[in-house]
Amino acid sequence: MSVNIRKLGEALGLTTDQMEAVENIHHTFCGEMMIAAQANNEDRKNMVNTAVNKDLRYMRYVLTKEQFHKYNLLLQTTLFNRGIER
């Protein structure tokens, strides 16, 4: 689940420090989603939920309230558009 971090940063109005932190968090999230994609159907949904919840928890520390709201909306829309069930 790859996202263009530069475009995400522009959409959210991230500072340089936030951009670096968001990039690191997203890298971890992508790794967890890759592992979930390879899991069997029974475990996949739980693994995806865990990865998304962890990503949101970490992003909440880095982003302002307004940025986080917009990020959450973008993430949920991206998951839906890619057909990833939570």
Global morphology = elongated
Based on helices, strands and strand pairing, what is the structural class?
A: mainly alpha
Report the C-alpha radius of gyration, rounded. Answer: 13 Å
Mean pLDDT: 92
Number of helices, counting only DSSP H or I runs of 4 residues or more: 4
Distance between the termini: 14 Å
* Contiguous runs where pLDDT drops below 50 for at least 5 residues: none
**SSE order, one letter for each helix or strand:** HHHH
Helix content: over 70%
Oligomeric category: single chain
Could you tell me the number of beta strands? 0
Q: Characterize the biggest β-sheet.
A: none
Percent strand equals under 5%
Describe the structure.
There is one protein chain. By secondary structure, the protein is mostly helical. Helices cover 80% and strands 0% of the residues. It is built from 4 helices and no strands. The protein has helices at 5-12, 16-37, 41-62, 65-81. α2 runs antiparallel to α3 and α3 (41-62) runs antiparallel to α4 (65-81). The two termini are 14 Å apart. The model has no long low-confidence stretch (mean pLDDT 92).
